[in-house]
Amino acid sequence: MFAVLRTGGKQYRVQPGQVLRVEKLAAEPGETIQFNDVLMVGDRIGTPLVAGAGVQATVIDQIKGEKVIHFVRRRRKHSSKRTKGHRQQLTLVRITEILASGAESSGVKAAIGAASRQTAEAGTAPAAAPGARGRKTAANTRSAGPAEA
User: Fold this and answer.
1) Domain map of the chain by residue range?
2) What SS3 state is found at 122?
3) Residue 98, strand partner residues
4) Is residue 127 classed as helix, strand or coil in its secondary structure?
C-alpha cells in the first residue's frame, strides 16, 4: 500500500520502509511522528484530505542538504559580483506505517515544521521582513481622530 502525503509545501508518495528527506520538523532523532495531511491512501483520494488517515514515521536524524551557491555577475559592470551560499535544514525520516483510518486516535505526536513550532510557542505571527510593505490597517496607522492639545 502507498500514500501521498504533504509536508513542508511538498507532496511525497511513500511506502512503509522508505526513507525520506523532508523540510525540517520539530522532532528529536528516535521519535515517532505522524503526518496527518494525507492526500491519498491506496485507491482512496481525499477531497482535499483523506479523513482519518495518517502516515507514521520514525525520525532518523536532523541533517543539512547540499550547498547551493547563488552567484550574480552583472555584465558590463566592472567588478559587480556577489556570491551567496545556502544549506537547507532537513529531517531524515523512515516511514513505518500507513493508517487508512483511525489515525486521530493513535496517540502519536503530529509532525510539525520547526518554523511553525517556534511561532506557536511564542504565540505570535512571524515577523515581517524589514522594509516589507503591507496593507494599511487601524493597528499600524496613526489615529485619524482629533489631536489632543
Assistant:
1) 3-64+91-122
2) helix
3) 55
4) coil
Q: What is the pLDDT of residues 21-69, one digit of tens each?
A: 999 999 999 999 999 999 999 999 999 999 999 999 999 999 999 999 9
SS (H, E, C) 18-54: CEEEEECECCCCCCEEEECCEEEECCEECCCCCCCCE
Burial status of residue 46 (CB atoms within 10 A of its CB: 0-12, 13-18, 19 or more): middle
pLDDT tens by residue, 69-96: 999 999 998 889 999 999 999 999 999 9
pLDDT tens digits, residue range 97-131? 999 988 888 889 998 988 876 666 676 665 655 65
Contacts of 121 (CB under 8 A, 6+ apart): none
